[in-house]
Amino acid sequence: MVLETISKIIKIQLPAYLKKLPLPETVGGFARLTVSEWLRLLPLLGILALLGYLTIRPFLPKKKQKDCIINLKIQKETRPVVNEIDIEDLSSTKVCYCRCWRSKRFPVCDGSHKKHNQLTGDNVGPLVLKKKIP
């Protein structure tokens, strides 16, 4: 039953619809179409536009998603952001450095990763450096 319906649409109704379409023979003929003729052309033009978009979509450049960017605001003018810290300069026995790029005191961790993890379901945490005291 379903195949019969599809067959009838493709073999009978679609050719009848296409024959009744007011397709002008020249490009200038589109300017002379009435509103009702444009409305009859609209489904065909929509399908052609959709097929054209689906055809070229794989070749379009991918948009960067803001969710994919890790560093949202820290030293954006620098490529890449690099922080060097001498181990000898560590004043305390334990220091935590940010790995989520959300810290207000970057590169030192201020715990901003906790809020980031809650919002995104991520599991980032700080880099912890411990200094052994002899």
Looking at CATH, the homologous superfamily of the largest domain is: CDGSH iron-sulfur domain, mitoNEET-type
Tell me, rounded to a whole number, the average pLDDT. 85
Number of helices: 3
CA-based shape: elongated
The count of DSSP E runs of length 2 or more, i.e. the number of strands, is: 2
N-C termini distance = 86 Å
Oligomer: single chain
CATH topology name of the largest domain: Ribosomal Protein L9, domain 1
**Total count of domains:** 2
Q: Measured on Cα atoms, how large is the radius of gyration?
A: 31 Å
Helical amount = 25-40%
CATH class identity of the largest domain = Alpha Beta
Strand coverage percent: 5-15%
Supply the CATH architecture of the largest domain.
3-Layer(aba) Sandwich
Uncertain spans, ≥5 residues at pLDDT below 50?
none
Describe the 3D structure.
This protein is mainly α and 134 residues long. The protein folds into two domains: 58 residues, no CATH class; 65 residues, Ribosomal Protein L9, domain 1, CATH 3.40.5. Helices cover 37% and strands 6% of the residues. Strands 1-2 form a two-stranded antiparallel ribbon. The N and C termini lie far apart (86 Å). Its cofactor is [2Fe-2S] cluster. Keywords: 2Fe-2S, Autophagy, Endoplasmic reticulum, Iron, Iron-sulfur, Membrane, Metal-binding, Mitochondrion, Mitochondrion outer membrane, Transmembrane, Transmembrane helix. It is found in: Endoplasmic reticulum membrane; Mitochondrion outer membrane. It comes from Coilia grayii.
